[in-house]
Amino acid sequence: GQLVQSGGGLVQPGGSLRLSCTASERFFYMYNMAWFRQAPGKEREFVAAIIWSGGVTRYADSVKGRFTISRDNVKNTVYLQMNSLKQENRAVYFCPADGWKELRITSEHYTNWGQGTQVPAPS
After folding, report:
1. DSSP assignment, residue 42?
2. pLDDT tens per residue, range 70-103
3. How far apart are the first and last CA of the chain?
């Protein structure tokens, strides 16, 4: 299925943004979902992941307490709420899916990547 991302935009230092990722897949509720990001000149890195039921989440240490991943299986959508944004959060954010039973945080396990959403540096 296709993953279509939305959200992003300009933000002030310490501000908030919410990213969304909507799946066309009818079996979205069966997939674990995650957010990864890639900053200019850097490798793609894990940000957050949520299990298919929404009952388990995992976060990168750098975003714990500031970012929240959630999902709505009726709307086939996963969200990333980003608060207290910093310069280092500037990156392109991607949402992929993983059909494995356990929640994983490495990118090679994920497929069906969204198109990416640019999150600029706060200004």
Report:
1. S
2. 999 999 999 999 999 999 999 999 999 999 989 9
3. 36
